[in-house]
């Protein structure tokens, strides 16, 4: 995939708002992502400014003459289609997926239904509404089993359940974040992630990253606040496995109608080396520990170049005829 940055007229981008912070459980990470993006854009000569929707009304974007937005919000009210819908109404182009794709990708259960319908591999699952149903799901899916909120990110509210005694607490923790709770078959094997840039037929996968977390526990702490997690990019996987992961990730991205950028998490089952799609993130992290910049670097694109390319791709889903 070629990135022609020389054709980007920085001045023509206009005044850019980097949306960061917000109201979700991932506010802290979003502030880190947004700060990195803001600094990167400013270093490229972009007239970029921080904007926290938790502290200011979005309508101020229009009043203050912002021409486009870089969405560095994570989780609810950031990557679930709500802020995208508001920006569509304000007619301010933004980075990343539109309303429908953002909303679907944020809902892990809906995502899995679409992928399963399209014949894409994803672990078996049950949606549960009580601790009792969680125990029944463990019976059906077997142990270990992953219990998590359907519409949260960054492994927030997630429990790896190995016995029936853990089911009640696991359900209660997940339900604290979302009434829709997902119980998912655990896939033992290599943990990988793969970013995608672009839209439709032009969407392309970046290099795969293989993640090795302490004791296999890639939780919130190990994602953002420790240096003990190892990231391998190049992944070290056989070339055929890397290509297959990239193929299904691009298909998964296109199936949901994603655009701009995204990152899908994939487990490779140790027993038969078969890949399984877990979820897709339409507003990936851009912190010092984040994975899209790491993969982009392996493809020859610096953090600053990635930010500049993404903001140059900002768009609206619907044009107004008049």
TrEMBL record:
Record-linked InterPro entries: ATP-grasp (IPR011761), ATP_grasp_subdomain_1 (IPR013815), D-Ala_lig_Van_CS (IPR000291), D_ala_D_ala (IPR005905), Dala_Dala_lig_C (IPR011095), Dala_Dala_lig_N (IPR011127), PreATP-grasp_dom_sf (IPR016185)
Catalytic activity: 2 D-alanine + ATP = D-alanyl-D-alanine + ADP + phosphate + H(+)
Required co-factors: Mg(2+); Mn(2+)
Pathway assigned in UniProt: Cell wall biogenesis; peptidoglycan biosynthesis
Domain of life: Bacteria
Cytoplasm listed as a keyword: yes
Transmembrane segments: none
GO cellular component, one term: cytosol
EC code(s) of this entry: 6.3.2.4
Record's cofactor remark: Binds 2 magnesium or manganese ions per subunit.
Catalytic residues (positions): 26, 154, 290
Enzyme class: ligase
Swiss-Prot/TrEMBL keywords: ATP-binding, Cell shape, Cell wall biogenesis/degradation, Cytoplasm, Ligase, Magnesium, Manganese, Metal-binding, Nucleotide-binding, Peptidoglycan synthesis
BP GO terms, sorted: cell wall organization; peptidoglycan biosynthetic process; regulation of cell shape
Gene that encodes it: ddl
Name of the protein: D-alanine--D-alanine ligase
GO molecular function: ATP binding; D-alanine-D-alanine ligase activity; metal ion binding
Residues the record lists as binding Mg(2+) 1: 265, 279
Family of the protein in this entry: Belongs to the D-alanine--D-alanine ligase family.
Main localization (coarse): cytoplasm
Function: Cell wall formation.
Protein residues bound to Mg(2+) 2: 279, 281
Gene3D superfamilies: 3.40.50.20, ATP-grasp fold, A domain (3.30.1490.20), ATP-grasp fold, B domain (3.30.470.20)
Location of the protein in the cell: Cytoplasm
